[in-house]
Amino acid sequence: MITLRKRRLMMEALLIMVVYPLAVFILSFIGYVVTKKLFLFPIITFALFFLLALLVHGIEFFSWTAAFTVLSITAALLAKIIFS
Questions:
Q1: Element (H or E) spanning 20, and its range?
Q2: What percent of the chain has pLDDT over 90?
């Protein structure tokens, strides 16, 4: 039987491995297309995930914060290449 703790860990893993990266990529891509500012959404991404690390997930989440920021920069660069 799945305990409440295991269920919570599974949901966090789903968020970290699927939902957050997909949302970051899509929002950064669309954000660049709309604003034409390359580093606006990566800065917003860093600030948002930094706050999530402090308030919700804990200190272990800081490495994911860096990874999501790099993903955001990659998405913005990809949008710049496609729409330039």
A1: helix 20-35
A2: 68
Nearest CA among 22, 34, 28, 26 for reference residue 46: 28
Indicate yes or no: pTM above 0.90: no
Amino acid in position 70 = V
Write the pLDDT tens digit of every residue in 63-80. 999 999 999 999 999 999
